[in-house]
Amino acid sequence: MPGRGRKIETESSTCARFAGTGNVTPVTPDDAEHHGKSKAGPLSNLILAVSSAILYHLLAAGFSLGGGGLSTPLAFITEPLLLMSYAAVRINIGLAIFNIIPIPPLDGSKILAGILPATLADSYARIERFGFLILLLLLFTGIIDRLVFPVIRMLTGLLLQSDIVFACC
């Protein structure tokens, strides 16, 4: 069927624009934009965390001014938004920190490979086929938790510095 591939490509592009889906484009070490693409994910997570923290502070200020509590007229809107912005800060900080761990296939490994001299980057690239196994091993042994969670707590505390404490988080 001539032209079939073009139709699929067009449909995929349309889906990418409207549904947020698309084709996975692998990043190769020879790619000139390699280093920049790898930084985009963690950077966007940090931007989302900071903007969520700003929303959190704006909501918390309004919540406190209104007497803070369920008797506030807009508490049924403010309180869930406050919880969601708090969660968005923690989730996005967690994703950013986890993603910069220099273990393949995470973005941190590509950032590190872009910083290393060519000879070391070639040696480092050899562990890529074992990266997923290394990552699983570190996750199941709890090493990642001991490294990542203190940083998440510290950055969340810096961004949210608030008297409002949620029992669930």
Structure description:
By secondary structure, the protein is mostly helical. The chain has one domain (37-160). The chain is built from 7 helices and no strands. α2 runs antiparallel to α3 (75-99) and α3 packs across α7 (143-160). It is elongated, with a radius of gyration of 21 Å. Mean pLDDT is 76; it is low at 5-24 and 165-169.
Helix-residue proportion: over 70%
What's the helix-strand series?
HHHHHHH
Radius of gyration: 21 Å
Class from secondary-structure proportions: mainly alpha
Overall average residue pLDDT: 76
Total helices: the number is 7
Indicate the low-confidence ranges by residue numbers. Answer: 5-24, 165-169
**Care to count the β-strands?**
0
| Total count of domains | 1
Shape: elongated
Distance from N terminus to C terminus (CA atoms, Å) equals 56 Å
As a percent range, the share of strand residues is under 5%
Q: What is the subunit arrangement here?
A: single chain
| Major β-sheet profile | none
